[in-house]
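A quick aside before the break. I want you to see a complete sequence-to-structure record at least once, exactly as it would be stored in a machine-readable document. Don't worry about memorizing anything.
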Amino acid sequence: MPTVDLPAPSPYDAPGVFGFLAARAIEGVETAQLAPGGPLTYARTLRLPGGPAVIEVTATGRSHGDPSAWRLRARLDLADAGDEAAALGALRRLLDLDTDPAEVDAALAADPVLAPRVAAIPGIRVPGASDPHELLLRAVVGQQISVARAREHLGRLTRMLGSPVDGGAAGLTRLVPTARQLLEGLPEPERPLDPERPLRLPARSIAAVRAIAGLVDGSRDVLDPGIDPDVDPDVESQRWRARLTAIPGIGPWTAAYAAMRLRGDPDAWLLGDVAVLAGARVLGLTDPALSRSAAHAALGRRAQRWSPWRSYATMHLWRVPRDR
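That is the input. The structure line, written in tokens, reads:
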């Protein structure tokens, strides 16, 4: 069982990244330990080319006392030793380990309203995705419901349809359902909806989950996060989002969230996001007299000054209500 160092440019907001993943952990698929003052751990099952794997990452504060300097080490339990590179690549994307934090922090701190947030949370990161299909499944299930409710729905879906993992670590017993398992185990929604259905969401959401599964099962490239160097990044991102929003049940928010976490787009903006607006209001970034729709529009205009790092500004705004 190899143990590998995961270099991360400092500063690195390990508590924020591990906390984000812990809040969204699917029962049986992920576990996390966030003991105050102790090491942070995050572990999960993962489907790799050579078979199921269990990966565990530990973040330990460095001895010189800098609270934003962390040492990350990964322990890999692989079915096939040849999957090590794939596992490490998935972890680097998931933990956002290849971003230049100094560049992001300097850009966002230029806004005097965000500057105190940057000082309080240096090296903020945008957690990515270890699997494209899983990320879109999470995004669709999480539309217009709380993180806690989405976690419950995904846990039930995984218990009912996901494959078991033999000999996994404590608490890690399942893999997220494949596209084929979703298509076979999640029937087309009919009226009235079966109260015992694996995914207790409205028909529109179930249809969207099945549509995405159909694309993946058919080997379509709609989820491919790759970048074409011959196409302008903004144009390519717009085309990719348009392919997603063409699927019934997937709107602009879901497409932007997927771009942010799946494609690693540093400049995604989640227009209409309730938590983003809540954080902005606490910071005084919007006029309290504005209606919600007008406030979202005004905030979107203000966010232009944070480009090309609006995904990272989003992470700061999401953190405000929790910190205050």
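Two observations worth writing down. The chain has three domains: 3-98, 101-124+269-324, 132-261. The first helix runs from residue 14 to 23. We'll return to this after the break.
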